[in-house]
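Quick check before the chapter quiz. The format below is the same one you will see on the exam, so make sure you can read both the input and the output lines.
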Amino acid sequence: MPTGCTLAIASCLALSLAGAQTPAIRDAPITTFGVTVVDPFGLRGEIYLLEPNTDRLPKFEKLKSVGAVYTSALNIPTRNFQEGFPGVTNRFEWFAIDYTGNFYVGNPGKYRFLLASDDGSRLYIDGKAVIDNDGLHAIQPETGSVTLNGGIHGIRISYFQGPAHSLALILAVARPGEDWRIFSTNEFRPPRNPADWKYGDPDNLPGDAAAGRKKK
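Here is the expected output.
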């Protein structure tokens, strides 16, 4: 039976097409799709049930969410998935998750993103599509880049799983002048001290992040 580490390395080999075979990605902790405990600084993933034979990302505005999960990172290498979403739904195929969140950029410049998935996925930054990896397919990496100013930015990762049982979802980032690493909202939090802010307004944070700061 392959270990989690072995699976992570295998997935990174699948990403070699995109040049993402770095120790930072190979050694990153494997995650799940998320938990039901609210993380104000994390990604909120709304879960939707799809009709069998869906072969593209759905129009989420036409669907009703069955619940939400939260995570700070997406590093789910190719795996057999049958457990569903405890506390939300037991669906393990024909579902979609629409993740949204915010992240703070303290080092402006060109950011590269890598999105690998089985099945389809799409990445948006500030409402604009950066990577389109949609469709029914085995794990497949796609890359894109965007120049980001300092301050708060919005991020959205849309994902769907078709037929059982294999799936995967990995989001990585390369900051200006750096190698690939798994994207984590924990590494893109705004400074706690308003005096340390170089960019943006600490009194004008988006909803969940603002609530999280007030609790600290």
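If your answer matched, good. The domain at 4-215 is CATH 2.60.120.1560 (Jelly Rolls).
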